[in-house]
Amino acid sequence: NAIALRGELLGGEAAIRKILTIHLGKIFDRSELLDKTVASLRRHYQDAGYAFAKIEPIPLVDQQRKALGIVFRFQKGPLVRIANIEIVGNTETQDHVIRRRLSLKEGDLYSDTRLRQSQRRIFALGYFEKNDDTYGVQVQVEKTLDPDQVNLRFVVRERWTWTILPSFTYLPGYDAIFLGRVGKENFLGLGQSLSL
Which neighbouring-strand residues pair with 17? Predict the structure, then answer.
């Protein structure tokens, strides 16, 4: 059976077919259809600003030939821009230190890939505990009263950024010597390091 595409095809049918991970003649795998194909198709739309695109796979069973066809229905929805970006949970790190790691800013078209990149870049600073299993830093996408806009809320959880390294040395004929080193990553929340 065939794989048919119906509805609002972003970039045309050829562009959509390149994204498909399922092909004619393969054994049907529901997780591949839902987890890979639909997720890839949704990301294609979301990266173009269609944050709430709907992709619906409809299986068509041919009992006589023991075959399965699929019709994908596409609905773009509104083109969505980012209205506001909020950062919460940063008790020490200043907002501008986190914001400079964002791949998106207010007024940009929504992009799932750039959103995930922002999560990874914030976590890579090394100042936050992991609170999202996939990307390190949690993000919440919130609809606004305007269907063409969303708010983004990045939720971080500060981690201990002090380093204390005590050492003890004893030399015969001398007193015991206590040494130590103290370091602070993210000094004053500015994203800089200090070591004494």
Answer: none
* pLDDT digits 0-9 by tens, 105-130: 999 999 999 999 999 999 988 888 88
Please state, in angstroms and rounded to a whole number, the distance separating the CA atoms of residues 117 and 126: 15
* CA within 13 Å, CB half, 44: 23
Under a CB-based contact definition with an 8 Å cutoff, are residues 124 and 191 in contact? no
Phi, psi of 49 (to 5 degrees): 105, 0
Which of these, 79, 72, 18, lies nearest to 48 by C-alpha position? 79
Please, which residues bridge with residue 2 across strands? none
Q: What is the 3-state secondary structure (H, E, C) of 115-170?
A: HHHHHHHHHHCCCECCCECCCECEEEEEECCCCCEEEEEEECCECCCEEEEEEEEC
Q: Does pTM surpass 0.85?
A: no
196 C-beta neighbours (distance < 10 Å), count? 7
SS (H, E, C) 9-47: CCCCHHHHHHHCCCCCCCCCCHHHHHHHHHHHHHHHHHC
* 45, 52, 130, 151 from 146: Cα distances, Å: 19, 13, 32, 11
- Residues written for the chain: 196
**Distances, alpha carbon 158 to alpha carbons 54, 58, 83, 86, in Å:** 36, 45, 26, 16
| pLDDT tens for each residue of 28-54 | 677 777 778 899 999 999 999 999 999
